[in-house]
Write a structure and sequence with these properties.
2 copies of one chain form a homodimer.
Chain A: H1 16-31, H2 38-45, H3 59-82, H4 88-105, H5 107-119, H6 124-143, H7 151-171, H8 178-184, H9 187-198
Helix pairs in contact in A: 1-2, 1-3, 3-4, 3-5, 4-5, 4-7, 4-9, 6-7, 7-9, 8-9
The structure holds a DNA duplex (30 and 30 nucleotides).
Chain lengths: 213, 213
Amino acid sequence: MSESEHPARRYHHGDLRRALVDAARRLLEKEGPTALSLRAVAREAGVSAAAPYHHFKDKAELLAAVGEQGWELLDRRLDEAAAAHGSAHERMTETGAVYVTFALKNPALYRVMFDAMRESEGNPDRLTDKDHRFERLRRMLVEGGANPDDLMGLELGAMAAWCASHGLAEMIAFKRFDSMREALGGEDALMRAVLDQLTIYAHRPGGPSPSDG
Amino acid sequence: MSESEHPARRYHHGDLRRALVDAARRLLEKEGPTALSLRAVAREAGVSAAAPYHHFKDKAELLAAVGEQGWELLDRRLDEAAAAHGSAHERMTETGAVYVTFALKNPALYRVMFDAMRESEGNPDRLTDKDHRFERLRRMLVEGGANPDDLMGLELGAMAAWCASHGLAEMIAFKRFDSMREALGGEDALMRAVLDQLTIYAHRPGGPSPSDG
DNA sequence: GATGAATCTTTACGGCGTCAGGATGCAGTT
DNA sequence: AACTGCATCCTGACGCCGTAAAGATTCATC
């Protein structure tokens, strides 16, 4: 009862469920998404090929768990960035940068995360997580000067911001931007430059101050 | 010689290469991306499992050809939309709508297309196609009032527009937007509303007319 | 018509996701 | 402490996959 420090470390193998998710993430980083077979995950975790089926209905459910864990990590970082110092516009850009950077550094994991979110459509549990992400975006938009009563506008703005970040994350790796990346001084600067284009609505909601940046 | 109307209809099977690409697209629409195995494509085309290897190095190369054909079709539609009547801002939104609609109606094909483009990074042939897409975007931005001499700004703006469209295409299917979709009167209206948020920079480049829409 | 090359088929290999059935070890009862 | 039930894990098997080697077929050319 009190001997085991890890509350979940029990049963034959230990907490195999968590071990499998960890193994899957390790493989994703190391070998890329094509190498992520259920058998390989089981091998990495040191169990037989059929063992995962006592913890996940099928491969998709394992992937969903991996994606979920990825979102937990990313959500934590986004919360931090959204609560940081600086102007509302700076926080908005910085939060976007955190999102895009995460996706760039963990492209395979990010794909799994996005697919997992897409396939959990209608799942009430996961809906809460997604709502939290939208709530954070709406809050930042209001802090940036958006009209808090324009619910539709807030929703559209939040959606636009997320679309932009997601799209940027999937586009920025293109070689075509090498010269721009160089001219701006790195991937991070390029990212922020594009985000500035996209989040322009956040600090210019009604158009009161046309040029102050 | 002159009997066959199709210039490529020759050899044993006929133009198997094209037949395979067509079969792949048919399967993508009908069964989804998970059902798209090389063997299934060969089956659909009526040849043995190994036959495709005389026309494609491997499965990835077949997929690339499918994606390429998809881009040919989409590029044609985008060219039309970009040359349509209306204001520059209307054309911009309409072109974005065409892009997003295509992705929504052919989600599996669009994924293949985007992946093919991503994996053809560095290929000089395909680079030309991508440049054409950026050129179209830059032209529209200039028509919308952007400074033609601000090359960096044009590039960033084009990139931002593409990012936004791509992100929107992958996000709009979310159930979360059902109420908004309903309030706005359908998927098309929702799409245009978000695009309006995103292309705001197109008709307000320096911020001269804060509220005229 | 013969030749050589291109195209297609057959057969085979290892890896994959998944399932059925048997082995193993834990928790709680007596 | 032995028994029982069940969760956990392993072995073996099935069909499908991507891919390669080798043989068969048919086209282009002489």
